[in-house]
Amino acid sequence: MQISARTSPAQASDRPKAYLPREHGATAMLLTPIFSVAILARTWHWSEVVVLLAAFAAMSAKDPAVLLVRQRFVWKQRSPESFAAWRWLLGWSVVLITNVSILLKAWPFKAFLAIGVGVAAFGAG
């Protein structure tokens, strides 16, 4: 179910309590190249698993963040799901920060910075 920006929290009561990625196409677009490269290379490296976890956490954190931003700036009233949204956002943020810190220690900083610039440019467009 898509919830528009003007939908009130009272109308959004059938929203799932588990905040997992709902955009199946975007998830497939993210995972397909990573799995394809691993299959073609016939090997897995532990940092690829960390990248997958970080990407999944970033995609999962979007829905609770959107709910909390809409609650604050659009609905201007507290949603009954805000506590669950805060909890899920905190959990996904911890997973994301943990995985990014692991990658910062494992990868050369220039490579990490180049990927970050690419992600920022892609996200801004």
Model description:
The protein is mainly alpha-helical and 125 residues long. Helices cover 71% and strands 0% of the residues. Helix 1 packs antiparallel against helix 2 and helix 2 (46-75) packs antiparallel against helix 3 (82-106). It starts with 23 loop residues before the first helix and ends with a helix.
Give the SSE map.
Layout: H1 24-41, H2 46-75, H3 82-106, H4 109-124
Helix pairs in contact: 1-2, 2-3
The 3D shape can be described as elongated
Give me the strand/helix succession.
Answer: HHHH
Q: Cα distance, first to last residue?
A: 25 Å
Gyration radius, in Å: 17 Å
Number of strands: 0
Q: Helix coverage percent of residues?
A: over 70%
Name the structural class: mainly alpha
Kindly report the average pLDDT value. 82
Low-confidence stretches: none
Main sheet makeup = none
- Contiguous helical run count: 4
Report strand %: under 5%
